[in-house]
């Protein structure tokens, strides 16, 4: 009977060792897959929603064109600004009267002949973007990503 007990005891030890090795190997594989998942998650950039600031529409009296001294023309334009994040939107909201004044002064210098063409409208967008992308106080600055026209009527 003693040989049977020794055989059972040796088999138990072998089975226990096999179980421990299999469990350790499974744990190792699980940790490796977790590390790969974390690396993939870090490589994928976080997709941010765009942040828009809608300005109330402007009604602007345009100067007469250089070659045609017609009566004053009126421009009605709605503008939406796209910025990187909500912090920059809040800065623009804090300085909204200054922002609106800058846009108003800039658009009131435009000639109707330029605004009738697509290139003139694109140039105006770039001018507004450049005028509003700046430092507003000693610690806060704004970068306007895009200027979008939602309304554009010349009369």
TrEMBL record:
PANTHER family: FLAGELLAR PROTEIN FLIL. This is Flagellar protein FliL. It comes from Gilliamella apicola. Pfam families: FliL. Controls the rotational direction of flagella during chemotaxis. Belongs to the FliL family. GO terms for biological process: bacterial-type flagellum-dependent swarming motility; chemotaxis. Its main location: membrane. It is found in: Cell inner membrane; Cell membrane. The keyword NAD does not apply. The chain crosses the membrane at residues 12-31. GO terms for cellular component: bacterial-type flagellum basal body; plasma membrane. Keywords: Cell inner membrane, Cell membrane, Chemotaxis, Flagellar rotation, Membrane, Transmembrane, Transmembrane helix. It is a single-pass membrane protein. It comes from the Bacteria.
């Amino acid at each position: 009977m003693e040989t049977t007990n020794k055989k059972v005891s040796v088999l138990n030890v072998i089975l226990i060792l096999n179980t421990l090795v299999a469990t350790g190997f499974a744990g190792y594989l699980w940790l490796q897959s977790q590390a790969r998942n974390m690396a993939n998650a870090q490589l994928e950039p976080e997709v941010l929603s765009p942040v828009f600031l809608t300005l109330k529409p402007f009604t602007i009296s345009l100067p007469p064109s250089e070659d045609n001294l017609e009566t004053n023309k009126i421009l009605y334009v709605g503008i939406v600004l796209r910025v990187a994040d909500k912090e920059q939107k809040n800065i623009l909201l804090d300085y909204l009267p200054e922002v609106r004044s800058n846009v108003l002064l800039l658009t009131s210098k435009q000639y109707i002949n330029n605004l009738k063409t697509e290139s003139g409208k694109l140039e105006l967008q770039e001018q507004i973007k450049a005028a509003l992308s700046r430092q507003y106080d000693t610690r806060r600055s704004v970068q306007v990503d895009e200027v979008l026209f939602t309304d554009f009527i010349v009369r």
